[in-house]
Amino acid sequence: MNSNPAPLSTWARNVSPSPTLVIDGKAKALLAAGEDVCGFAAGEPDFDTPEHIKAAAISALNTGKTKYAPTPGIEALRVAIAERYLSDYGLKVSSSQVVVSPGGKYSCYLAIMATCSPGDEVIIPAPYWVSYPEMVKLAGATPKMVLADDSTHFKLTPAMLEAAITPRTRLLVMNSPSNPTGVVYTRDELAAITAVAVAHNLYILSDEMYEHLLYDGAQATCIATLSKEAEARTIVVAGFSKTYAMTGWRLGTLVAPAPIVKACTELQSQMSSNATTFAQWGAVAALKEKEKTAASLAMMMTAFDRRRKFLHTELNKIPGMTCLLSQGAFYLFPKITAFGLPDEEFCAKLLEEEKVAAVPGSAFGAPGYLRLSYATSDEIIRKGVERLARFCAKLKK
Ligand SMILES: Cc1ncc(COP(=O)(O)O)c(C=O)c1O
Question: How far does residue 104's CA lie from ligand 1's centre (Å)?
Answer without folding.
Answer: 5
